[in-house]
Amino acid sequence: MIIKKNIYKALLIILFGFASSVEAARYWVAANDGTDKMWHDNANWSISSGGSGGASAPNSVSLVAIFDGNSTVNAKLGGNVTKIKQLKVLNGYSGTINLNGYTLGSKNNISLWGGTVLVSANSLLQTWKDLYIYAGGTVTASGDGSKIKVKSNTHIWGELTAPSGDSTRFIIKGGFNLRSGGTFNHNNGTVTMATRWSGVGAAIRIDDGPGTGRNFYNLKKTGRRIAYLLNDIEIENHLTVIGNGKINAVKPAGTSYDITIGGNWDLLGSSNFNDGAGKVIFNGSSAQTIDSPANFNDVQISNSDVSLSGNVNITGTLTIDPGATLDINEYNLTAVTLANNGNLQLEGGETLSITTKDTDSGTITYDGTATGLAYGNAYYNLALNTTGTMTLSADLDVNGSLKITDGTLNTANNDINVAGSWTNNDSFISGTGKVTFDGTSVIVTGGTGDSNDFYDVTLGGTSAAQSANAIAIDNDFEITSTGKWYTNCLAMTVSGDTTEGNGSIETTLAPTVTFSPANSATGVMVGSNLTLTFNVAIRNTDNSALTDSNVDSLITLKATNSNGSDIAFDAMIDSDKKVITINPTSDFSSLQAVYVAIGSTVENSCGTALSAASATFTAADIEGPTHTWSPANSATGVAVNSNITLTFNEAVINIDDTALSNSNVDSLITLKATNSSGSDITFDATIDSDKEVITINPTSDFSSEQVIYVAIGATVEDSSGNANSVSSAIFTAIDSITPSLTFSPVNSSTNVAVDSNITLTFSEAIRNTDNSELTYSNVDSLITLKTTNSSGSDIAFDATIDSELKVITINPSSDFSSEQVIYVAIGTTVEDDANNAISASSATFTARELGSTDTTAPTITFSPADLAIAVAIDSNITLTFSEAIRNTDNTELTSSNIDSLITLKTTNSSGVDIAFDATIDTAKRVITINPSGDFSSKQEVYVAIGTTVEDLYDNAISASSATITAVDSTSPTIVFDPQDLENPVPVTDNITLTFSEAIRNTDDSTLTSTNVDSLITLKDSDSSGSDIDFNATIDTTKKIITINPDSNFSSEQTVYVAIDATVEDDSDNAITASSITFVAADSTAPSLDFTPADSATGIAINSDITIAFDEVIWNIDDSVITDFNVDSLITLKTTNSSGSDIAFDAVIDKSKQLITISPNSDFSSEQVIYVAIGATVEDASDNAISASSITFTTADSTAPTVAFVPPDDSNCVPVSSNVSLTFSEAVRNSDDSAITDSNVGNLITLEYTSDSSPVAFTATIDSDKKVITINPDSDFVSGEVVNVAIESVEDTSNNTMSSTSGTFCIVDSTAPVVTFSPAHNASLVAKDTDITLTFDEEIRLIDDSALNNTNVDSLITLKDTDKNGSDIAFDATIDVDNKVITIDPVGNFSSDQKVYVSIGETVEDYYNNAITDDVLQLFAAFNTGDKDKPTVIIDAVITASIATDSDITFTFNEKVRNLDNSELTDSNVGSLITLKETDANGSDIPFSATINSAKTIITINPTSNFSSQQVVYAAIGATVEDYSDNVIAATIKTFTAEYLASSLSSPLNEKDVVGLIEAQAETAKRMIQHSSAPILKRMEWLRRHRDENNLSHQGVKLKFANSTLTDITNTFNLSSFVNNTADIFGDDWAIWSEGSVTIGEIDENTFSSIKGIKSSGITIGIDKIVDKNQMYGAAFRIENDDNDIGTSGTKLDTDGYSLSLYGTFPFSDKTYIDSTLGIGLLRTELTRKHVSGTLSGKRKGEQVFGSILYGAEFNNNQLTLSPYGRLDAGYTKLNSYSDSGTVAAINYNEQKINTARASIGLLVDDEVRIREITFMPNARIEYGKELIDSSDVIVTYNIYPNTDYTLNIDKEETNNFRVGIGADIEVGGGWLFMTDYERNQTESSGHENTLSMGLTFQPNSTSEYSFLIIDSNSSNRQIGLDFNKNLSDDWSVNTGFEIAKISTSGYNNTVQFSTEMSF
Question: What's this model's pTM, rounded to 2 decimal places?
Answer without folding.
Answer: 0.40
